[in-house]
Protein 1
Amino acid sequence: MTKTISSVGEDALVAAIAGSCSRIAPRLIKGMGDDTSVTVQKSGMALLATTDSLIEGIHFVRAHTTPYLLGRRCLSVSLSDIAAMGGRPLFHLISIAMPPDTPKAFISGLYKGIDACGLEYGSCLAGGNTASLPDRLVISSTVFGEMDKRRVVYRSGARHGDVIYVSGRLGDSALGLKILQEDGPAALTGRYKDAVAKHLNPAPRLALGAELAKGRLASAMMDLSDGLGIDLGRLCEASGAAGRIELAKIPVSPQLTHYAKGGLLGAAAFAAGGGEDYELLFTSPVSRAKGIAAAARRSSTSITPIGIITERKRGRQTVTFLSEDGREVDLPVRGFQHF
């Protein structure tokens, strides 16, 4: 007989979760088992905090992933926010609302993924919450990190003439989601399986973010969660500036180029309107180009300059996209918004 959460009971479930955590952090005085966790903070360091939720039927389909990968993803999306501030992760809280008939093995696999991701990136489980929800699974992750308060990188520092960079390749996550929606579980082993893997198991760019912040190389930074078109608009709004992107410079994978029928511009337009890349979008003065390249090498992360920050003009779009001949291109989709 399959053990379910209701047959195990909440206290036994929490005890099992606590016992599955393989990392003990020296600054975690008390983790699970009291009303709050208790941690030690360092003088002069800013405490970073972020939270995200994954909702079944909106952010994931249970049949399209594994419990382990879902666990990794739920923590990675929050770790990406810490990376965007240039910070170092410390602790995380995980809250789960689930149907009572959820198999215990599913939750065990989920926490194995969370634990493996935390171990890889230096974050320790410090607590959370469990609750019953009749028809779907909802997972919320809260991550705490820290950063020298003088070197935190905000969205608001981009200035006219700064170069716009992105890490990695864009659009694979959106492609992976599209293929999953079309092919279901068969997509996991199909032609676009690498793009599917990028969607299901994103890699937060913590090493690059830390290098950029440590060297004061980025004037503004954020992670790409909702798509380049929307997220660059947010960075520009915060900075009181505008941005101009050359579509042909957006880095895309061979898989996405193939999907777009070999047209690089079509692939780039798809990437610009996709979401959930969890790459870093940042700006930097031209004079820091050598430092940016060195930071990319030290963090083993590819980066690409794709545009420039311009002056904000009334009546003009905050973000413009240009074709290879310099014409403005109106993209039909600029990213994902919940509302």
Note: The mean pLDDT is 91.
Protein 2
Amino acid sequence: MQLINGISVVIPNYNGEQLLPQILPPAVLALSATGIPYEIIVADDASTDDSVAMLQRDFPQVQFIQLPTNGGFSKTANAGIQVARFDWVLLLNSDVKLTPTYFEYLLPYCQQSDLFSVSGRIVGWETDQIQDGGKYPVFQGAKIKTSYDFVPEQTSPAIFSFPCFYSSGANALINRKLFLELGGFNELFSPFYVEDTELCLRAWRLGYSNYYEHKAICAHRTSSTIGSPERKKQVNRIYNRNKYLLHAIHLDGFYLLSWFLQLKLELAFRLLTLRFTPLLSYIDFLKLIQGVIKSRRELRKLLGSKRLQGVPTLFAKLQQQINQQPVQLQQR
């Protein structure tokens, strides 16, 4: 732990006036337990409540930056991490509170030279029920599946670390230097969803690693980040669009062609069954196709002398490593 110069906690916030007072004291407690320098930065996404006034009044030790317009998670997180001054950044949702020993289990990973990110277990706000475990890579047909979690069946040996598909943006300890080198979150994915998946997949393909630590625990207050149930259709439209973006950026050759064909067949079937949201998502996706081309080009620029790993091969390797220890798979 002495090799770490400090921890920056970055909390993207939108209208979190009621939530921030509940998550900031536990964050300070967990940070203080590390015995190393730290800072907390709230990146405010043009909130319409009194979040900033509350921070100034009740938490003067917390830094904050304000975005002039509402830009969504990717833009807000990028802005917060950009101004962070320490090498390791914990990206923390405004509806997630840390347990006192949270960092004890994550910080040892920082000694790994290829580490991009590591995240912990997410349980309920008032229960120990697991909401998110490690992200398990599944490549089905020509589709990247993002809805599978794995949970270790027993306490893993001290020398064993579980790689994972991606670290949840709700609680991800990130190598800031690599984050900036890789270009941060892709803002095509704004306002929310799948940006953490895409970034970690980018890291894997460029030769870096993401891990899951089951003993590092934090609690999530369900449904407070995205909003009320009546927004479900809008949220699904954005989620589907961003899944399309993920595939178009990271699949190549035969798999990219197969995915496009499979997608068109699925869209035709959904139209026949009068489900129009996926088609609207596809139209939204097509409007961003120039951004997809740019993202693919930038990914290859990052390569240098490295070899870009294909998604199916990468997923097969990760599955093999994860399955060295008994795990239970869960589909969200």
Note: The first helix runs from residue 20 to 32.
Protein 3
Amino acid sequence: MSAPLINRRVLFARKQDARFVEEPVEERALREREILGKTVVSLISTGSERGGYMDYNDNMAYPQVTGYAAVLEVVDTGSAVTRVKKGDLFYASTPHALYSQVSEEEILPVPSGLAPERAVFCRFPAVSMSSIIPMTVRPTEPVLVTGLGLVGLMCSQVLQNFGYDVYAVDPVQKRRDYAKKCGILHPVAEIADVPGMAGKFGAAFDCSGDETGIYACADSLRQGGELFLVGVPWRKTTSMDGHGLLLKIFYGFLHVHSGWEWNLPRKSGPFLPDSHDHSLNKSLQWIAEGKLQVDGIALVRDPADCGEVYREIGDNVLQNEASCVLFDWRSY
């Protein structure tokens, strides 16, 4: 009789307390279309998971499982699984855990030859694609992206792939350097560094979640422009009030949209080709084809170091070093 599998996972035990914990894998037969996978790599966005760790508004429930982007190797499958077999790699939006059980409907097989540490990035271009796909502004107009964390960096690349002239703003030099390395043509520290563009942008995507970024976007749009709030506004960061922003929206005839990634349906259907799943597939395709650059933008860490990693994220240390953190699970 084989020994039971021991799972390891990253857990927020309480506010600002990340732990690497062990627990037995649930012993049960897999459902017909279920897959047991062993995680190879999982990816942290230094913005998205920060809110759950920091609990800025004291409204989080703990303990809290975290993470939502991983590449896993198939350990076992249910009897009706057809898309993957034992030993194959697949992407899934599973948490930071050594083992996960997931439905076949919720996976993307990783193309042959694509490294798992590249494939795992496919989740993050899909975040902004939920805003880009319904946008009415066409590629004949310039667009603005504020915030070059992982989501903003991917947003900028996706927009360029669609043919837009993209101006990407971030005050952190290292982030602008990453953007340039990824092929972004106009990374700047502030919009003032692009003379003559104020009031010329057809659309703006704030990926920072910061009031200053949102105000800058509103100032930069043409009349009737579109403003997408992609970054999560986890906390108040300035003393700015909302009245000035309301004036810009009202008299600028601006269209303001939530950038919530689930604005699109999870799956495509008849007459509805666009979906979150479709965006993930397109992102994975573009990464495999080299149309989305992801190499060298992540720090690689052992998941056992999660306490230190999340502390550095909360203290704004890692944001100045890399766009994200990759947990490598291959030693477990």
Note: The CA atoms of residues 168 and 246 lie 24 Å apart.
